[in-house]
Design brief:
The chain has 830 residues and is an all-alpha fold. The chain has 32 helices and no strands. Among the domains are: 11-128, Ankyrin repeat-containing domain (Serine Threonine Protein Phosphatase 5, Tetratricopeptide repeat, Alpha Horseshoe); 316-442, Ankyrin repeat-containing domain (Serine Threonine Protein Phosphatase 5, Tetratricopeptide repeat); 470-540 and 696-803, no CATH class; 542-586 and 615-694 and 814-829, no CATH class. Residues 444-468 are annotated as: Disordered.
Length: 830
Amino acid sequence: MPSSHPKCPMPENCCLQCCAMVADDLGVASALGSGADVNAVDALGRTALMCAIAGENWSDVNISYASFMTKKRLRTIQSLLECRDISLFTLNSSQSGYNNVTPLGMAAWLNMPDVVRVLLEGSADAVSVDGMDKHGATPLMYAARDGSLEVVKLLLQYGARPDFRDGNCRSTIQYALTHPQTLYLCEIALCQRRLRQNETSPQTTTTFQSHLDEPSCPLTASLPEFSPEATSKTTDTIIQLILSSNITSLQSILSFPGTSSASSHSQPHSPVLLNLPDAKGWSAIHYCAQLQFPSIQMLDTLYLSGADVSLFTAQEHWTVLHCLAVSYRPPDRTPTTTYALLKFVTHLLFNLRAPFSAKDKDDETCIHIAAENGQSIDLLKILIECDRSKSVQSIRNSRGLTAQEVARPEFLALFGIDPEEEDRPELFLSMATIRSATSNSSLASFASSGEPSSIHSRREATSSSDSRVCPDDFDIVTAAHQLIDKLRATSPSIHHPTATSHLNYVENILRETEVLRSTIIQCFRSRAKGGFKVWEDMKSDSDNVSHLLSNATAAVNTRLVEHGLPPIQPKAVREFEDSHAMAVSVTSSPPSTPLPVDARPKILSGMKMRRNDSKFSSNFMGWLKRKSSEHFKDNKKAKETLVQETTLLSSHKVTSTRPAPNPIVDKTLQISRIVVTAMRDMSVINEKLTSAKELMTSANRSIARANHIIKGVIRSRNTMLEDLRASGHKEADELSLRGTPGLLGYSNYLAQKPSIQSIDSVSSVGSTVSSFSCSGNIADNDDEEIKAIHRLVLRKIEAQHDGALDEIDKVVEWLRVIKEIVRGVKRQTY
């Protein structure tokens, strides 16, 4: 059973990390033999595999140094890959200690073709060639961005997809635009994939054979040289053919570049780079949307030839949908033109999967453009109707406005608004529209932005529900400190004068305390409700992946039985792995001379390192270990029992002569090993989900208990206040009224603090609390109720809630990894 990525408290785990870092292959083997956990991460979030790949000073590493890229380092990586307990998560997940990049992504980033080869070959297909990291980037994107040609070739040979998009809707094609040979290879792979896919599952209405699908264009062949002048002329020729709607000549030049009459003057001959932009920064796909009558046949011709429908223009950062929104101006509105437009847009969105939510440099979607600057009400209506979930319409631009809020008056009816019902406020200013103006759409300016939106932190899923109950700037920790200070100041153990002014002052404090209690508890409950919703979504995702894995397992079992091998038994995963481990042989190619790196690696634009700042993580990990210790003990016993058992098949393979290699059988066994690993990983994921649910359930109980205790404490103080009023004693204690501290010394502090007139002011007094408040720690004279409130509100509830979301965050990426791997298994077995 793979671990759920513990930190490295055990000496053997620390030894494994250190040996991997310095490429001590013998030390790694010794540590693994001593029981080190290959899936463990150190305090910086690094696994042994990633340490072996990138070393310690990965941001300054240069693989041209012979002292770094050695045979020992490659052997170290290989030995880690061959460890049977290594999980799919370890092989494919992004790691916080290395800028949230995956192992294969790091190898591509650092331009390490030998390491890329070892990872892809030595893992028996368990490393996903298209595995995305926290930034949504694939290894091919890193290699294409830096022009690492040998790495690009390797990744494409293993089936990497150039059309995958990162969190900002940028594809590998986008990153390869400045490297002609890399762009050429990616266009070849994209064209060949689309043509093959179109044969089995047609996505276009056009049947067209591009020159890029010819067998004469293998990835192993020598690449042509690209002259800037020649490629520019070819690009201009293609664009002119598009603007003149000359589909026949366009198909001719794309089928046989350099031989058609349309391109005969473009000498010297240069291969077609269909996605290369012209001097304006627009590519062929953008001009296709600028036609007076957009043509599906033209669009399909470009698509089948390798055009990227998610490509952005250089200046405006417009996609083909943005270009259509700003350019479409039909000469007249007829049912025929409207229907043709509908077919074009729906084909582009649903068949060719153009990025609907892509944003330009001003964070505006195509609906923004069509609503504010477009000339066609029909186009805007079609785009709105295609946005069935209204998720695109809800996106705000850099001004903080939605498409509805920027729409021209004549278009408002499409959004369900009557423009004559009332005067339209300028810019629809409201609390909902006042947002921070940040843009992360620009390819050239990604470095100033945060993480892309596609990488969904499950914490964000709870924030929207929080905001409905709590103000956006509500600081629950500061509010809790204030609540505790007020409870201390109104403690019955303090001498309270019976002067009316003082009693009124205490009564006011108790009213404010009640407001704080109500808001704090509401916020906690809202977060808990959002957390349970996230958990339910993740449980549904887990069930879907389990179903996908079950189907893949059935397909693999069919293949195993066909070759006379025992099928995979879900309840005997360890026995299966033991009995087949010897049958899976993996060979790695001899290392080639590493390529030098011209400059230090750069992260994909806009991708910043995210740190885990949770102050409750250590509390949570201790809780989790205690909570699930019995379960892991049972698993450990089961593991020891299963390891001791020997199947008939394994004993037969040890004592008999190995038969002649059978590539089909070997491949089937490799696939079966991946399935077994996926089944192990799913078992850990289910444990994590169970632990997360238990944490959230405990948090709910803690919230209820905190609410009960605070209510009781406030009630007792109100009773004390009534008793003081009823006593009728009027003691003139002017010293205490002028600020003399009480028994515990909190009255003077409260007199200096501003009164909470509204709950919104909580966030503005945070600095004051840190300077004056004594509630950061439990005071010696605190009664038991205040101590309990302190523990629950300031420690336990937050720790439980954050701990559950930490576990769910891990499950999110782990499920994605397994889904990618299992889908690859299905492709190989069907």
